[in-house]
Amino acid sequence: MDISYIINELGETRDQWMGSVSPPLFQSSNFCFPTVEEMRVCLAKEMDAPFYTRGYNPTVGVLRKKLAALEGAEECLVFGSGSAAVGAAVMANLQAGDHVVCVQKPYSWTYKLLKVLLGRFGVESTFIDGRDPEEWRRNCKPNTRLFMMESPNSMTFELQDIPAVVAIAKENGILTVMDNSYSSPLNQRPILMGVDITVHSASKYLSGHSDMVAGVLCCSRDMAVKIFEGEYMTLGGILSPHDAWLMIRGLRTLPLRMERVSVTTPKVVAYLEKHPNVEEVIYPFSPSFPQYELARKQMDRGTGQFSVKLKAQDKASVERFCNSLNRFLMACSWGGHESLIFPVVTLYDSQNYSTSTLPWNFIRFYVGLEEADVLIADLEQALAKM
Fold first, then answer.
1. What distance in Å separates the CA atoms of residue 306 and residue 216, rounded to the nearest whole number?
2. DSSP assignment, residue 30?
């Protein structure tokens, strides 16, 4: 995979766009035609030709080519959010009476899609500890149609043995869908390991600037056509041309950003692992991580996310630590230029969450593009105030 060519050249027909180095932003909802026949031709290939921007837009088309190539897939569709991409991938391949096997702690909106929304329409879901491949086999039923994987997830970072789970799925004629947001296609390529569909919350690493929300779905051409003609066009959860243009811009620096966080994060993790006020650090590329060898086998390198359990006496001391941080912002997402924390204690005693399956002393960290020494100094002064 020539990453530099994909990011800087692929899909950018500059000779057609007056030599524009950056792809033009086609901020148009529809496209006109000189003859009925030309209009008829474009309507017949609406997934690949400008007719109406809900189906295809030239700026979005450039982005789709790049993302498919990065994942090693034949085709890509882009959406207005990661949950929209997951929803389209899942709903396109299920009907009433079907059964899904899913990892135990997926992205919260994936859980709600399967358990709440699709449950209302007769789809059954079983949530398992997916670390043991045989768990997937044991939970298969005659009506199992889909495996939903997330390796690693974005809070506690459990991994699945991707080739092993894919092999079980293929033996049983089951479709595999995997959320690859944590690693990005630069660090893990599930399609090349046999996964049928990969999805991303592209608000994270793929855009990288915390200025847009987007979702990505990569798969075979046949599967993309099926989803495009069904859930994509019917539900209309598309990405705007402007946001597509922003993501193309974000992709230009993706290798640099991923390299940076892979160097900085282990330094921050190593500091926290030795601190007396820290009970546990959970990071897939730490030798203490239970699935460390699998992480090294499936992923090229670590990224910027990890979680920490503090040695805290009470929730107030956790809040004091969080409130004392200056360089780590408190926010719900990750993958941008800024370092972040998401403290689980926020979910306790809130109006729409009374508790959580995670303990109140649990904090998810994301390391952005700051220097490691700056972040460590910030942690040091905040930990001292617990």
1. 23
2. B
Residue 289 corresponds to which tokens in the numbers above? Answer: 């991580």
Does residue 160 carry a pLDDT above 90?
Answer: yes
Contact present, 204 and 185 (Cβ < 8 Å): no
The full set of domains in the chain, from first to last, is: 3-251 (3.40.640.10), 254-383 (3.90.1150.10)
Tokens of 73: 């897939």
Q: Which residue has the tokens 């909106």?
A: 109
Taking the whole predicted model, whether its pTM rises above 0.90 is answered as yes
H-run or E-run covering 280: strand 278-282
CA distance 208 to 206: 6
> Count of alpha carbons within 13 Å of 69, Cβ hemisphere only?
18
What is the rounded distance in angstroms from the CA atom of residue 275 to the CA atom of residue 216? 38
One-letter amino acid at 305 equals Q
Tokens of 295: 């992480």
Per-residue DSSP letter, 238: B
Question: SS3 for 124?
Answer: strand
